[in-house]
């Protein structure tokens, strides 16, 4: 009865997130948010987390989209090789980074530049982006680009009208998923990150589990702020994309 219907899963996810947000809000006061805004450790944690999340997202989307476009007409071995990292959890990928990157001082684990964390995320998220976009590439009709060539359009306009308008939404969706995951993640930064500054997932977990119970509300406040940030980004994404979607559906793309 529910086959092909996304509403049950959507309602379940919304209910879980909403309940968690309600609990977090009930555990915090305005003073907790003011205390976080003046906490230099928290601000540094946010900065390094955004650096890791944005770097991992941009690189994963660029490389994954490029591989999907390159191998869209290929069958067999490319997809099989890129599927291997998907069977390994992020925790396992972090242990591989410890085993194989520990001898490299610049990119090894527990380095301030966080390269080992970014490389671990790339190992996992590039295949995700690849398989997310591969069906889209395979459904593209290359006759649009040929028509643009006949009409004398520039290479950029041919790409936009032939591929860009169809790839824009899936690429942004994949980028949002990767960004949200890497910003909140705990296990990879916990294994590979430095003791200071900690990524936001590790910092929040430490606040909640440390002996000082008076700081637990700050952990709930951080979860509220991060959830609000992602909701705001999703709202902006929807508001920006909807007009373009309507123009494309009506054939008015420039």
From TrEMBL:
Sorted UniProt keywords: Cell inner membrane, Cell membrane, Membrane, Transmembrane, Transmembrane helix, Transport
Origin superkingdom: Bacteria
Main subcellular localisation: membrane
Compartment(s) of residence: Cell inner membrane
Annotated ranges, domain ABC transmembrane type-1: 46-237
Transmembrane segments: 7-28, 48-70, 82-102, 114-134, 165-186, 219-237
GO BP annotations, alphabetical order: transmembrane transport
Gene Ontology cellular-component annotations: plasma membrane
Topology of this chain in the membrane: Multi-pass membrane protein
InterPro entries: MetI-like (IPR000515), MetI-like_sf (IPR035906)
Keyword Cell inner membrane attributed: yes
PANTHER family hit by this protein: INNER MEMBRANE ABC TRANSPORTER PERMEASE PROTEIN YDCV
Protein name: Binding-protein-dependent transport systems inner membrane component
Native organism: Exiguobacterium sibiricum (strain DSM 17290 / CCUG 55495 / CIP 109462 / JCM 13490 / 255-15)
């Amino acid at each position: 009865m529910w086959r092909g219907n996304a509403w049950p899963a959507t309602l379940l996810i919304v209910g879980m997130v909403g309940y968690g947000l309600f609990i977090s809000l009930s555990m915090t006061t305005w003073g907790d948010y003011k205390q976080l805004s003046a906490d230099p450790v928290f601000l540094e944690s946010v900065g390094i987390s955004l650096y890791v999340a944005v770097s991992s997202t941009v690189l994963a989307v660029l490389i994954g989209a490029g591989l999907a476009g390159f191998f869209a007409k290929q069958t067999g071995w490319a997809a099989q090789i890129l599927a291997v990292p998907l069977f390994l959890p992020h925790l396992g990928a972090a242990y591989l980074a410890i085993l194989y990157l520990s001898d490299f001082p610049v990119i090894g684990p527990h380095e301030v530049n966080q390269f080992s964390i970014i490389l671990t995320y790339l190992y996992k998220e590039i295949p995700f982006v690849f398989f997310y976009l591969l069906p889209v590439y395979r459904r593209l009709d290359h006759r649009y680009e040929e028509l643009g060539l006949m009409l004398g359009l520039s290479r950029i306009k041919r790409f936009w009208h032939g591929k860009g308008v169809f790839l824009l939404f899936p690429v942004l969706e994949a980028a949002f998923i990767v960004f949200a995951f890497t910003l909140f993640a705990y296990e990879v930064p916990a294994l590979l990150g430095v003791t200071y500054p900690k990524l936001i997932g590790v910092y929040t977990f430490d606040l909640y589990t440390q002996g000082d119970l008076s700081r637990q509300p700050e952990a709930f406040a951080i979860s509220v702020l991060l959830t609000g940030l992602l909701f705001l980004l999703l709202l902006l994404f929807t508001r920006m994309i909807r007009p373009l979607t309507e123009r494309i559906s009506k054939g008015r793309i420039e």
